[in-house]
């Protein structure tokens, strides 16, 4: 729960989820317009869209999606155009033709280290750039180490985390918490510990929820989403909305 001057927004997301990065950008815009709290603290929580993911080239990944949805590779590529366009509006350069998929568990472990060093959001964005723009293999330790060091994490600490299983329990706890809330897709936002909404909601919707949370922090919220909000675009185990 937030203190008297700080509003906390907990966000469940995955590193390979494009809607998560659009959702975070929308959240940034909403926070910029919010009046009231002295600060808004964004806390990122782990979620794995595919816990069994293996490294795949863009071609392999696209072909796998086409088989899964029983459609053509051309159709899969076409349906990503909306995400690319929306990303560009938010300053995100999605290059799905470069993205090398992989398991994100170690990336989430590093994000927990970054939280302890007040660098979590910075690392999240840097990992997104590595995966979606630069085409660095997101499951490889070299990719993760470079991103972590780039945002200011201590190289020795990073190496220690990657060499062992530090923060694995924290990642598992985040995933379990999402399961308890019946979260099946990300991004998923929980504002002030009590108001939740799923998907990459527009900035104006996020802004209304933030303002409502700040205006009435003690109200019991039976329904997480209000003010006309509906489920926004998200990524789940079966893929990303397009």
From TrEMBL:
One of its GO terms (molecular function) is oxidoreductase activity. SUPFAM superfamilies: Thioredoxin-like. Residues 8-209 form the DSBA-like thioredoxin domain. Coiled coil: none annotated. InterPro entries: DSBA-like_thioredoxin_dom, Thioredoxin-like_sf. Pfam families: DSBA. This is DsbA family oxidoreductase. It comes from Iamia majanohamensis. The lineage of its organism: Bacteria, Bacillati, Actinomycetota, Acidimicrobiia, Acidimicrobiales.
């Amino acid at each position: 729960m937030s203190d008297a001057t700080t509003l906390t927004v907990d966000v469940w997301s995955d590193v390979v989820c494009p809607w998560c990065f659009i959702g975070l950008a929308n959240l940034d815009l909403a926070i910029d317009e919010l009046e009231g709290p002295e600060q808004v603290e964004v806390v990122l929580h782990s979620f794995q869209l595919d816990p069994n993911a293996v490294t795949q080239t863009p071609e392999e990944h696209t072909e796998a999606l086409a088989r899964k949805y029983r459609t053509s590779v051309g159709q899969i590529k076409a349906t990503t155009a909306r995400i690319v366009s929306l990303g560009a509006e938010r300053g995100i350069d999605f290059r799905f033709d470069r993205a090398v998929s992989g398991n994100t568990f170690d990336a989430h472990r590093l994000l927990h280290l970054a939280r302890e060093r007040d660098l979590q959001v910075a690392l999240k964005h840097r990992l997104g750039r590595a995966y979606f723009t630069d085409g660095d293999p997101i499951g490889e330790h070299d990719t993760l180490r470079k991103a972590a060091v780039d945002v200011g994490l201590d190289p020795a600490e990073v190496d220690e985390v990657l060499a062992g299983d530090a923060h694995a329990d924290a990642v598992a706890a985040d995933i379990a918490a999402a399961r308890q809330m019946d979260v099946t897709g990300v991004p998923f936002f929980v504002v002030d510990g009590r108001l939740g909404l799923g998907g990459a909601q527009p900035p104006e919707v996020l802004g209304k929820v933030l303002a409502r949370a700040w205006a009435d922090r003690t109200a019991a919220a039976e329904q997480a989403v209000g003010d006309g909000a509906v489920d926004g675009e998200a990524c789940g185990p079966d893929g990303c909305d397009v």
